Fold:
Amino acid sequence: MSVDWGTFSAVLTAGGTLVLAAASFASIRSAERAARSAERALQVSLRPVLVGARPSDPQQKLIWTDGHTAHLSGAAGYAHLGEEAIYLGAALRNLGPGLGIVHGWSLREGDAPALAADFHRQGLDMYIAPSDHGTWHAALRDPADPAYPVLADQVKNRERINVDLLYGDHEGGQRTVTRLSLIPKRSDEGWLCQTVRHWNLDRPDPRD
Structure:
C-alpha cells in the first residue's frame, strides 16, 4: 500500500498546529490568572480599613476652619451644636496596610450607604497612615439643609448619630464607606465612636 505523503504531512501539520494552539491558550489563561493575582495583591497592599480608634490611643486635637477646636481621647466621638454650625468628629484608626484618605461624609440611616455623589465633600482630604490613628471632623453649617434640624435635635437630645465616611486609597481607588455611630456617654457629656459596617463601592459586596 502506497502512502500519500502529502496528506500525511498535512495531517501532521494540522495536529502540530492544534497542539500549539492548545498550549498557547493554556499559557494565556495562566498569564491572565497570574496578572489577576498580582493586581489583587497590589490592591490588598494599598487598601485602607478605617474603624474607631482604640480606647488606649492618645489624645488628638481637632481644628475646624472657623477656629473651633476639640480634643478626643481614645475611642471618642464628638458632636456639638454651635451658634453657626453643628460640629462632628471621631477618633479613627487605620487597620489596613494602605494610606487612607477620607473624601466625604453623609448622615445616613437604613441598610445601604448614600451614593458617592451625595456625600458632603471634605474641605480638605484627611490622611490616616497605615496601622496608625487619626481623626475625622466636619461641620454642617447650612440651616436650610434638611439634615440640619434633624442633626440639631439629635445633638441636643443626645441621641445616637450615624455618619457614613467615604474614603479610598492614595491612588483614588478602592472606595469604601464605613458607617460610624456617635453614641452619647452616660458618665459625662462626651461621645463614643463605634464602627458599624463597611461597604465596598468598587468591587462586589461580600454580603451578596
